[in-house]
Amino acid sequence: MLLTFRRWRRGRPFWGGLITIGAGAEIAAIPLAPLKVMVLQGVTGVVSVMMGLVLVLMGLSAWFAPYYRGLAGVLAVLVAAGALVLSNLGGFFVGTVVGVVGGSLIFAWQPLPPAARSDPPAEPDPAPDGDPDAGPDVEPDGTTSPRTYDAPASRDADAAPPRGADRLAGAGGATGAQGPTADPPTP
């Protein structure tokens, strides 16, 4: 029983939700004084109770719908800050401060990554295609160096020049006014 609760608690922003529920209960409880006092408060007592209920709702949604934690955290902070102005100084500052902390904890919570597999990953095959030279080059000091790229063999002399070669040489060809000039022969 305890193990299942612990697993459930770790899968959601539990402490942020608990703190936010406490802040909502504190903000809502102050106006729920005896009936004579509540009648004197008027509409502000209703607003205080509603803000407290919204904070409790945000704390519960963090528990039971943790994928809405961003929305619940931001709304909890906004309602707690609004309670400072609209609800008896936010439960005499205590409810506002606790609500902002709880909403921040809800917003900041991140789920744990899936547990790593217990078996280590298999070693990669250094030569996947059967070529012994396909793996990385290992230097004498044990470090690996990147493979060098062997350039393809040069083109045949009678093969056509690469596309765009005429543009490189200029409009007048290799000896034209715009093309590159040859170095004078050395004696």
Describe the structure.
The protein is an all-alpha fold. The chain has eight helices and two strands. It is elongated. The chain has a domain of 94 residues.
Fold topology:
Elements: H1 2-10, H2 14-29, H3 35-41, H4 43-64, H5 69-86, H6 88-92, H7 94-108, E1 137-138, E2 144-145, H8 165-169
Antiparallel strand pairs: 1-2
Helix pairs in contact: 2-4, 2-7, 4-5, 4-7, 5-7
Transmembrane segments: 12-33, 39-60, 67-86
Biased composition (Acidic residues): 126-140
Keywords: Membrane, Transmembrane, Transmembrane helix
Name the average pLDDT. Answer: 77
Based on secondary structure, the structural category is mainly alpha
Spatial strand sequence of the major β-sheet:
1-2
The CA-CA distance between the termini, in Å, is: 98 Å
- Measured by DSSP, the beta-strand proportion falls in under 5%
Helical residue percent? 40-55%
SSE string, helix = H, strand = E?
HHHHHHHEEH
Strand runs, count: 2
Quick overview:
By secondary structure, this protein is mainly alpha-helical.
Key features of this structure:
single chain; 187 residues; mainly alpha; 8 helices; 52% helix; elongated; Integral membrane protein; DUF6114; membrane
